[in-house]
Write a structure and sequence with these properties.
Blueprint (H helix, E strand, L loop, with lengths): L6 H25 L3 E5 L2 E5 L17
Antiparallel strand pairs: 1-2
Length: 63
């Protein structure tokens, strides 16, 4: 029997996943590694130089 995840918890999980993805992308950029993304219905590979820096508006503090 699966209980639904409370809205606040699912919001926290969503925020954590987004932060983890942003950090992983930033790590690729700093290490000079490319990433592949889905864009306009196809896979596009971005070089490290094409990856925008991690936005300073991302909150790194613990909640």
């Amino acid at each position: 029997m699966n209980k639904p995840i409370p809205e606040k918890l699912s919001s926290q999980i969503d925020t954590g996943v987004k932060l983890a993805i942003a950090k992983a992308i930033e790590r690729h950029r700093k290490l000079g590694e490319s990433i592949s993304i889905w864009q306009d219905g196809q896979v596009v590979t971005l070089t490290a130089e094409q990856i925008p820096p991690l936005n300073s508006t991302v909150n790194h503090s613990k909640r």
